[in-house]
Structures are given as C-alpha cells and as structure tokens.
Amino acid sequence: MSDAVNNNAPKSTIPSLDACLAELKALITGAHEACLSVPEMGAEDFGNLIESIKEYGLLIPILVDRERRLLDGRRRILACHAAGVRLEEAMIDETDETPEAIAETNFARRHLTQDQRAMNATELLPSFRDAAKKRKMAGGEKGA
C-alpha cells in the first residue's frame, strides 16, 4: 500500500477549537476531556483533510454525548471551518458510547510510540476512574 501524499494540499493554519465551538454552541456545548486527550494530526494531514472535505463534504459525522459534548470529530470540525463548510444538525450524531471507548478507538488509529501511548493513558486515567465509579454506583442502585 502506498503512503500517497497530497503535495497540493494547502499549508493551512489550524483554527482554534474554542473559536469553532463558540460558533457551534447551539449544536455542541463543549469538548469532553477524553476527546481533547487524543493527539493532534500533523499540518500536512490536516491540509489533506481540508481538501477532502472541500471535494466530498463531511462524510463521517461528528459524535456528541447526550449533553452535546464533543466526543469525536475535533479535527473534522476544524477542517470544516477552514474549508468554509458550515456544520448542521444532520452532520452530528449523538452516541451512548463512553467517551473513553471513543478515545481508545482514536488512539488505535494513530501512529504513536509506546511513550506517547503511555503519556496519553496517564492523561485519560482520571476520566476512566470517574467512568468506573459511575458504573459501580449504577450497578449498586440496580441491586438495591
């Protein structure tokens, strides 16, 4: 398989997530910490994503939880902004998946060293602990 690089992709500056989310406050309330823990993509890959969205539109929806917090799609939001594509409700899916499960899936797709994986796991540990505590409490309530 070839690692084709789009040499024509723009060398775009990456917009601020906070600024993009401020524009989307009616659709997305903020970003979950698990989403923010996923490593950034490089500038070249980001430029390729912008070009793809310009050509094909947003093909993979943005994922939010029931509280409308961003779980997956941080870079797609930024690329849509840079490409001039306005996000609409139909481009956003609500999921019951845990933020930690989605973050783990994103980590698996990234090409990270063992050190980078360990550092990211350390950053996610508080979120995993909170999720486990909530599951434990919910389990206790069912058995009562």
Concise synopsis of the structure shown:
The protein is α/β, with parallel strands linked by helices and 144 residues long. It has six helices and four strands, in the order H-E-H-H-E-E-H-E-H-H.
Number of domains: 1
Percentage beta strand: 5-15%
Q: Would you count the extended β strands for me? A: 4
Q: What structural category do the secondary elements indicate? A: alpha/beta
Largest sheet: 4 strands, mixed
Protein name: ParB/RepB/Spo0J family partition protein
Organism: Aporhodopirellula aestuarii
What does this structure look like?
This is ParB/RepB/Spo0J family partition protein. It comes from Aporhodopirellula aestuarii. InterPro entries: ParB/Sulfiredoxin_sf. With 144 residues, this protein is α/β, with parallel strands linked by helices. It has six helices and four strands, in the order αβααββαβαα. A four-stranded mixed β-sheet has the order 1-3-2-4, sandwiched between helices. The protein starts with 16 loop residues before the first helix and ends with a helix. Mean pLDDT is 80; it is low at 1-7.
Q: Which features does this protein show?
A:
ParB/Sulfiredoxin_sf, alpha/beta, 144 residues, four-stranded mixed beta sheet, ParB/RepB/Spo0J family partition protein, 53% helix, single chain
